[in-house]
Amino acid sequence: MAFSLNLKRVLISDSVDNCCKTILEANGIAVDLKTKLTKEELLAAIPNYDGLIVRSATKVTAEVIRAGKNLKIIGRAGTGVDNIDIPAASLQGIIVMNTPGGNTISAAEQTCVLISTLARHTAQADASMKAGKWDRKKYMGSELLGKTLAIVGLGRIGREVAHRMQSYGVTVRERLLGDKTFPLCKKGVYVVNCARGGIIDEASLLRNLESGQCGGAGLDVFETEPPTGVSAQLAQHPKVIACPHLGASTVEAQTRVAKEIAEQFVDAVQGKSLFGVVNATFLADALKPQAQPWLSLGEKLGKVAACLSQGKVAKATVTTYGADMKPAGRYITAAVSAGIMGSEANLVNSSVMAKEKGCQVSSTHMDTVGLPYPAAVSITFNCDGKDTTLTGTVVGLDVPVLVKFDSLVFSGAVPLSGNLSFVKGSPGKVLADLVPKFGENGSINYVHVAGGGAESIVVVSTSSQISAGYPCIAL
Ligand SMILES: O=C(O)[C@H](O)COP(=O)(O)O
């Protein structure tokens, strides 16, 4: 379950600064730049790539993702990932990452430009000059000083806008903008949208522009891009200053996001870091060397649970023990889910796959371990109508072992490797039964026992898989 990403060939399907290609190629990753592909061309090309880099123009639909049989990672050179079907990518085990900060300043500056331009009707005045007019009365504007600005979503860009607008003497509120907001605003309110078209009800905006309740709008983004229907009516409206999604279109922002996405890909391939992942945020922690044996333990516990329940785990609870283990819970749970789900699963898709297959995997944490180890992990799952708990830990530097079966502690930690059979019964009887089944075809490596008498759990490590009617797993 150790995390690794091997990228041979990446497709860049939107107009991304050339430094992206240069950086990837310098790190041994082949790159094809093919912009303006039709949907059909993209579907035909995508199976040849294990990485894809886009901006907002390429629609990475579930169909494209399904066709991308070899895709391992999709990178967005920019912020918004609404053009990527993230659930479909997650289900297929594909990492989706963006460059969350690269175009913040450019988008914030574009927002401020639109706010200022709206207040002074600059675009309309310019258009009238170009039409040969000199209309000073018509374009009487208003000062920004003393006005109130409501920012919907005070994230990175919102904060930068607030910061800049405060220097104009504008009071900033945080507020939610809903369909019913226009009547609550001052008559003549101005609206600026540099985020996504869908966050404003465009039909409602149009009506409010017509009625005068909204005094004007600066729109950089539209529900449909390029604008059609109501979006196009808004783009054409005399009270609207419209731009073709230019928020991030500056030389600086485009160089930054292109460089960032290329470097993020290279770092991920080299196992250095995983930055900007949007669909499995715990992966960055899973990459750390100290996480590797715990990922392996989690996956093996999941495999044993699947074996003991004959693949019918319907519910499992993963518990991490030890104060330092709390942050590891998410990736260990993903590793356990991958173990339960089998070979198709990886850390990105295991939780989604488990959910889809009706297996509920939850996690919990306890600071105390209750065993002579600093940390441990257990999985409680339903097997033969009753709950079974397997508890494991990591010994030495990186050896995953099983230490407890329900409340029974093993006489010695059981290495979770090789062929293991799990048998309930008195150890003497179990061995008497097993030994004759071997002979020349294999041998018993070691036996570990938890508990005593007929209720003992006997784990037998053998040189090959036994078909003796006992649950036996190759780890
Ligand atoms: O989400 C973003 O990063 C911005 O909207 C910019 O989109 P673009 O890369 O398509 O210009």
TrEMBL record:
A GO BP entry: amino acid biosynthetic process
All copies of domain D-3-phosphoglycerate dehydrogenase ASB, residue ranges: 292-404
Family matches, as Gene3D superfamilies: D-3-phosphoglycerate dehydrogenase, domain 3 (3.30.1330.90), NAD(P)-binding Rossmann-like Domain (3.40.50.720)
Keyword Phosphoprotein: yes
Keyword check for Acetylation: yes
Residue stretches making up the D-isomer specific 2-hydroxyacid dehydrogenase catalytic domain: 10-279
InterPro entries according to UniProt: ASB_dom_sf (IPR029009), D-isomer_2_OHA_DH_cat_dom (IPR006139), D-isomer_DH_CS (IPR029753), D-isomer_DH_NAD-bd (IPR006140), NAD(P)-bd_dom_sf (IPR036291), PGDH_ASB_dom (IPR045626)
Source organism, top-level taxon: Eukaryota
A GO term for molecular function: phosphoglycerate dehydrogenase activity
Pfam family, one: 2-Hacid_dh_C
D-isomer specific 2-hydroxyacid dehydrogenase NAD-binding domain mapped to chain residues: 114-172, 175-247
The entry's keywords: Acetylation, Amino-acid biosynthesis, Oxidoreductase, Phosphoprotein
UniProt subunit comment: Homotetramer.
Family statement: Belongs to the D-isomer specific 2-hydroxyacid dehydrogenase family.
Protein name: D-3-phosphoglycerate dehydrogenase
Species whose genome carries this gene: Pocillopora damicornis (Cauliflower coral)
